[in-house]
C-alpha cells in the first residue's frame, strides 16, 4: 500500500504482512483483529484510516473529507502508545498538522482530508464527549480493555460525517461508508469480547493472527532474530498463550470450579464430529437436570451401553416461571429431540418444598406435565461438585467416560472458566461458586450428575443424625 502526502517529496510506503491484509481491506461494518505482541496489528489499524479515507466520496470541491475517532481506555495509554504509533506513519508537519490541546490530527494526502480525533476514556466527561461526536469511522485500540457499552454506543456515532446535506458518508458509488475497526492482544475468556469474537453478528468480521512461534507467523522478518523465544523466557504459560500464541486468556475473576478435573479436549466432542445422540439400545432413561428460579434451565444426559455419560443438550432461559418454561421450552425440546424416550427429571431438591400460598411444589408442575421426578441426594454445592468431579475423572478404554456435546455452549463455557469460585476483595477465593450466568446451568448439570453418580456407585449414602444407611434412589 502506497500513500502520497500533500508534500510530493514525502511518501508513506507500507507493505502489510499477508495475515493483516484481509483485516486491512475488510469493508464490513465492524472488523476486529487479535494478534501477538509485535505482529504489526496496531500499524495496520492506523493505516486502515488512510485506506478508508481514500474511499470516501469527494465533495463538490473535490476533497474527500472524513472524520474518525481513535479510542483507548485511558489518556495515558493514548499518549504513551496509540498516538506515537500513529505519528510513526503520519509524522506531524509532513502528513498533516496536530492540535495537541484537543488531540486532533488533520491528515492530508492526495485529495484526502481526514480529521483524526484521539480520545482516552479516563472519566465520565471523556465518555460523554466521545458519544456526542459525529464521525465517519471509529477505531478501538486494544479493544479488549474498552467497555462493551462504549463499543455499542460508538456504533451509533459513525457514518454521520459528512452529513447528508453534504453528500453523506458514502463511497463514490453511493455505498454506505460507516466502519468501526480495532486491534488487540487476545482478550480473556468468559468476557464480552471473547463471546463477540467467537459468535460475531453478520455485520462483523473477526481476524486472528497465527501463533507467533509457528511457521505461519509472517511478520517476524520485521523483528530481531529469536524475538519471541527470548520474550517467552521466564513468562508463565498463561502469559505466553495470550501475548505470543494469540489464545484467549484465562479469566482472572476467580478459580474455575473444575480446574483440575475438566479438560476440554478430553471431555468435549470436537465440533467436526457428529453430535451426540440419545441411544435407543439401552434401558437407561434420559436424566434431565433442572434448576428453578426466574432463569429455569435443563441439561439432558444419558448413560450409553458402554457406560459412558453423554451430555446431549441444554436449555437456558431468562425471566420466566417454571410453568412457562415447561410449556414454551422444555416440552418442545423434548418433542423435537427425545420423542419416545423415557425421561426422568432430577430437579433442584428445594423444588420439593411446598409453597406457602397454594401448598403446591415446583416439582408438582413437572409432574402435572407428565414428567417423572427423582430427588437428588443433596443440595449442598460441595456434594454436588464432588459427584461431577468423580464422573469427570473416570475413563472407558483409556478415553473419557464423560462426554459433552459442543452444542451445550453455556455448560462448556462454564466448565472452562465461567463457573468459578468468587474472589474476595482481599484476593482470597470463597469456598462456594459465584452466582452468575453460568451457575444455573451448572446447578442443573450437578442435579443430573448426582443421580448418575449414585447409579455408578450402586447406592447413595444418606445420613440421618448419626445413622448411616445405603438406599436405592426412587421416583419421588
What is the strand and helix layout of this fold?
Blueprint lengths: L1 E3 L6 E3 L7 H5 L4 E5 L6 H14 L9 E9 L2 H15 L6 E4 L4 E6 L2 E9 L3 H7 L6 E5 L6 H7 L24 E6 L7 H7 L5 E5 L18 H6 L4 H7 L20 H4 L18 E6 L5 E7 L5 E7 L6 H16 L5 E5 L14 H7 L3 E2 L7 H12 L2 E2 L2 E2 L1 E3 L4 H10 L2 E3 L5 E5 L5 H19 L2 E5 L2 E5 L5
Parallel strand pairs: 3-9, 3-10, 4-7, 4-8, 8-9, 11-14, 13-18, 14-15
Antiparallel strand pairs: 1-2, 5-6, 6-7, 11-12, 12-13, 16-17, 19-20, 21-22
Give a verbal description of the structure.
There is one protein chain. With 476 residues, the protein is an alpha/beta fold. The chain folds into 2 domains: 2-232, P-loop containing nucleotide triphosphate hydrolases (Rossmann fold), CATH 3.40.50.300; 264-471, Nucleotidyltransferase, domain 5 (2-Layer Sandwich). Helix content is 29%, strand content 22%. It is built from 14 helices and 22 strands. The strands form 6 sheets. The chain has an 8-stranded mixed beta sheet. Strands 15-14-11-12-13-18 form a 6-stranded mixed beta sheet. It has a two-stranded antiparallel ribbon with strand order 1-2. Helix 2 crosses helix 3. The termini are far apart.
Amino acid at each position: 500500500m502506497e500513500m502520497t502526502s500533500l508534500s510530493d517529496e514525502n511518501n508513506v510506503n507500507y507493505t502489510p504482512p499477508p495475515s493483516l491484509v484481509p483485516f486491512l481491506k475488510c469493508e464490513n461494518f465492524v472488523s476486529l483483529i487479535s494478534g501477538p505482541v509485535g505482529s504489526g496489528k496496531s500499524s495496520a489499524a492506523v493505516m486502515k484510516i488512510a485506506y478508508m479515507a481514500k474511499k470516501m466520496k469527494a465533495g463538490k470541491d473535490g476533497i474527500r473529507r472524513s472524520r474518525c475517532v481513535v479510542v483507548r481506555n485511558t489518556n495515558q495509554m493514548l499518549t504513551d502508545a496509540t498516538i506515537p504509533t500513529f505519528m510513526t506513519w503520519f509524522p506531524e508537519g509532513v502528513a498533516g498538522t496536530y492540535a495537541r490541546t484537543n488531540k486532533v490530527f488533520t491528515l492530508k494526502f492526495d485529495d484526502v482530508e481526514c480529521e483524526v480525533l484521539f480520545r482516552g476514556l479516563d472519566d465520565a466527561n471523556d465518555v460523554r464527549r466521545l458519544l456526542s461526536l459525529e464521525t465517519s469511522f471509529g477505531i478501538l485500540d486494544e479493544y479488549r480493555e474498552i467497555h462493551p457499552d462504549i463499543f455499542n454506543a460508538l456504533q451509533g456515532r459513525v457514518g454521520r460525517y459528512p452529513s447528508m446535506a453534504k453528500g453523506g458518508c458514502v463511497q463514490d458509488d453511493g455505498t454506505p461508508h460507516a466502519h468501526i475497526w480495532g486491534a488487540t492482544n487476545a482478550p480473556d475468556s468468559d468476557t464480552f469480547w471473547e463471546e463477540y469474537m467467537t459468535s460475531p453478528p453478520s455485520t462483523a468480521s473477526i481476524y486472528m493472527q497465527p501463533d507467533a512461534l509457528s511457521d505461519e507467523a509472517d511478520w517476524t522478518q520485521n523483528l530481531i532474530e529469536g524475538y519471541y523465544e527470548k520474550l517467552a523466557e521466564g513468562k508463565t504459560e498463561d502469559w505466553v498463550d495470550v501475548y505470543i500464541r494469540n489464545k484467549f486468556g484465562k479469566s482472572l475473576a476467580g478459580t474455575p470450579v473444575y480446574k483440575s478435573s475438566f479438560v476440554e479436549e478430553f471431555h468435549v466432542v470436537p465440533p467436526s464430529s457428529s453430535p451426540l445422540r440419545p441411544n435407543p439400545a439401552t434401558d437407561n432413561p434420559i436424566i434431565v437436570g433442572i434448576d428453578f428460579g426466574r432463569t429455569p434451565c435443563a441439561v439432558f444426559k444419558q448413560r450409553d451401553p458402554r457406560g459412558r455419560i453423554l451430555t446431549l443438550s441444554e436449555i437456558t432461559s431468562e425471566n420466566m416461571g417454571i410453568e412457562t418454561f415447561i410449556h414454551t421450552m422444555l416440552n418442545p425440546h423434548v418433542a423435537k429431540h427425545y420423542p419416545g424416550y423415557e425421561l426422568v427429571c432430577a430437579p433442584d431438591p428445594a423444588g420439593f418444598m411446598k409453597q406457602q400460598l397454594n401448598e403446591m411444589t415446583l416439582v408438582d408442575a413437572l409432574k402435572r406435565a407428565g414428567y417423572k421426578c427423582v430427588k437428588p441426594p443433596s443440595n449442598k454445592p460441595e456434594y454436588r461438585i464432588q459427584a461431577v468431579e468423580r464422573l469427570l475423572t473416570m475413563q472407558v478404554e483409556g478415553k473419557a467416560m464423560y462426554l459433552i456435546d459442543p452444542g451445550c455452549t453455556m455448560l462448556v463455557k462454564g466448565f472452562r472458566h465461567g463457573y468459578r469460585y468468587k474472589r474476595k476483595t482481599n484476593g482470597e477465593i470463597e469456598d462456594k461458586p459465584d452466582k452468575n450466568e453460568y451457575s444455573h446451568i451448572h446447578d442443573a448439570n450437578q442435579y443430573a450428575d448426582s443421580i448418575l453418580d449414585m447409579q455408578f456407585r450402586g447406592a447413595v449414602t444418606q445420613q440421618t443424625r448419626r445413622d448411616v444407611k445405603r438406599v436405592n434412589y426412587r421416583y419421588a
